[in-house]
Amino acid sequence: MAWAYLILAGIFEIIWAYSMKMSEGFTKLTPTIITLVFMILSFGLLAVAMKTLPLGTAYTVWVGIGAVGAFLIGIFFLNEPMGLLRLLAAAAIIFGVVLMKLTAD
């Protein structure tokens, strides 16, 4: 169950990162509220997952999901560049997250 909480926490991290961008420096109320709610949910689920998963594994997977998810949101919804080096960097993050999962106790 800890892995399900961790994956959900990572998805919520993507949501709050996108909402933070949409809040324009916390100057727009609705995206600001969404950011804060999903931050709390994300951190809360991460904390629950860390009860049983190793710190390094849980945190690395959580950050990896958030980083790659935010990267993809940027490309597909915010027209951010999708250069070869950026794609390779995202692939390296995914590779690292998969290795972390495979070596978790």
Describe this structure in words.
With 105 residues, the protein is an all-alpha fold. The protein has one domain (2-102). Helices cover 81% and strands 0% of the residues.
Total count of strands: 0
Q: Fraction of residues in helices?
A: over 70%
Number of helices: 4
Mean pLDDT reading: 94
What string gives the helices and strands in order? HHHH
Cα distance, first to last residue?
14 Å
Q: What global shape is seen?
A: flat
Strand content: under 5%
Secondary structure category: mainly alpha
Which regions have little confidence, pLDDT < 50, spanning 5+ residues?
Answer: none
Give structural attributes.
mainly alpha; 81% helix; 4 helices; 105 residues; single chain
Q: How are the elements arranged and paired?
A:
Blueprint: H1 2-22, H2 29-49, H3 55-78, H4 84-102
Helix pairs in contact: 1-2, 1-3, 3-4
Summarize, please.
The chain has 105 residues and is mostly helical. The chain has four helices and no strands.
